[in-house]
Write a structure and sequence with these properties.
Shape: globular
Structural class: mainly alpha
Strand order of the largest sheet: 1-2
Radius of gyration: 18 Å
Helix content: over 70%
Largest sheet: 2 strands, antiparallel
Number of strands: 2
Order of helices and strands: HHHHHHHEEHH
């Protein structure tokens, strides 16, 4: 059931957010992060619907589906411009929709990069560790924390007084964006932990909300 939900809802969300991007209802950076947040959150939430104790095949199927996304995005990203122009209009529209919803600069080449960086670690964690707390912490930071940091930082951290530099990182960071990352990662970890606990994934492993709360806080930091 969980895998079927992923098959239905992920493409639907990409289409809806792509439409928002094409209509320019939101800034491109915000649209990209909406894709980031909603598709990742939906995928991981659907894992709670996989059969208890027999979820490996379902997790593997979801990981394969994510890697099919990588292949599709790579095709759209690297197909030569002359061949791209000869594609059927429906396919070109789909690729352009993906560009609108997933790229920062509006260039097709960017499709392959972001998708690769998010899908590969997500699929590896999902297959190897399932719904273990380490997966919850990592994907909460990847999907929710990172997804919130950029739009919050752009909206509330544009003033120089709200920014800071890291000696080992080239780009300037903002205090509101970093706080959004921290709180988003922390909150999402607790929500996912509660969801998987409710779904029965943590029975018999000594799960406690207090321990999970402490671990979620350290992972967000």
């Amino acid at each position: 059931v969980g895998f079927l939900f992923v098959l239905v809802f992920i493409p639907l969300e990409v289409e809806i957010i792509g439409f928002i991007g094409r209509q320019k209802l939101l800034p491109a950076a915000f649209v990209r992060k909406l894709t980031h947040i909603f598709t990742g959150s939906t995928m991981f939430a659907c894992v709670s619907l996989l059969p208890l104790g027999e979820s490996w095949s379902g997790r593997f199927a979801i990981a394969c589906f994510m890697n099919l996304f990588i292949a599709a995005f790579a095709f759209g990203a690297y197909i030569p411009e002359d061949r791209f122009k000869k594609l059927p209009a429906a396919i070109k529209d789909r690729i352009q929709s993906l560009v609108n919803s997933c790229s920062r600069s509006g260039k097709r080449r960017e499709l392959a990069l972001g998708t690769l960086f998010y899908c590969i670690p997500s699929s590896m964690l999902l297959v190897l560790f399932g719904t273990a707390p380490i997966t919850v912490f990592a994907l909460s930071a990847l999907f929710i924390g990172d997804g919130l940091a950029d739009p919050i930082g752009r909206t509330f951290g544009s003033d120089k007084s709200m920014q800071y530099d890291l000696p080992w990182y080239n780009n300037t960071k903002s205090y509101p964006g970093s706080m959004a990352f921290l709180l988003g990662s922390f909150g999402a970890s607790l929500l996912y932990g509660s969801l998987f606990k409710w779904a029965g994934h943590y029975t018999g492993i000594g799960y406690s909300h207090r321990l999970f709360l402490q671990a979620a806080g350290w992972s967000a930091l």
